[in-house]
Design a protein that fits this description.
Elements: E1 2-3, E2 12-13, E3 18-19, E4 24-27, E5 29-31, E6 36-37, E7 42-45, E8 57-59, E9 64-65, E10 70-73, E11 79-81, E12 86-87, E13 92-99, E14 104-105, E15 110-116, E16 121-122, E17 127-129, E18 132-133, E19 138-139, E20 144-145, H1 159-182
């Protein structure tokens, strides 16, 4: 369901994207080419900053926002998700936040006030809050990363983790095509 926010912004969804009919996109949301947005995802851009404006929540081309993901932003701050990035089931991405291209954010992870570099992997149930994660870094499951974390002690993404991320992205791109073909059936 696409909704206008109280400020009058309405989501912009590229015609090649697939948004499940149970998902809710509200306000200043931009969805690029071939994006998959799964069941019960909520992407809501409706809070204003102190000057009465707001930045967009933007989902880059070929990315996937899976079942039950929540994306929102504090005080109209931007949320930018790069291309070919996967946000897995029930993750929370709360802006201000930037997630680079070719990244993977695992089940139930929480991201807030952070910058996640290209190719990063944040595994399941992890928390990344108030920090910058350079490109190619790996956050293990259940880990909490914050402003006082020694980022340079974090492991780098392995070839196996990169292959997994690429496979998830590829699978969800195929789902976009499949669900777009079925769209008129439901």
């Amino acid at each position: 369901m696409l909704r206008r926010n109280p400020s009058g912004h309405f989501p912009e969804v590229h015609e090649s994207a697939y948004v499940d009919q149970t998902a809710i996109l509200c306000g200043r949301v931009i969805v690029r080419e071939n994006v998959f947005i799964g069941p019960y995802a909520v992407i809501r851009a409706d809070e204003l900053n102190q000057h009465g404006g707001m930045d967009a929540i933007e989902i880059g081309a070929h990315s996937n926002i899976q079942d039950g993901v929540v994306i929102h932003s504090k005080s109209g701050a931007a949320v930018i998700i790069g291309e070919r990035t996967s946000i897995a089931h029930r993750a929370i991405v709360h802006g201000p936040c930037r997630i680079g291209s070719d990244a993977f954010i695992g089940f139930n992870s929480v991201l807030f006030n952070c910058d996640i570099g290209d190719g990063c992997v944040v595994r399941h149930n992890a928390v990344v809050d108030g920090c910058v994660l350079p490109p190619g870094f790996y956050v293990p499951s259940t880990e909490r990363i914050g402003p006082h974390t020694d980022i340079m002690s974090m492991p780098r993404v392995s070839a196996q983790a990169t292959e997994f991320s690429e496979d998830v992205s590829r699978t969800n791109n195929e789902l976009v095509r499949g669900y777009k073909q079925l769209q008129n059936e439901f």
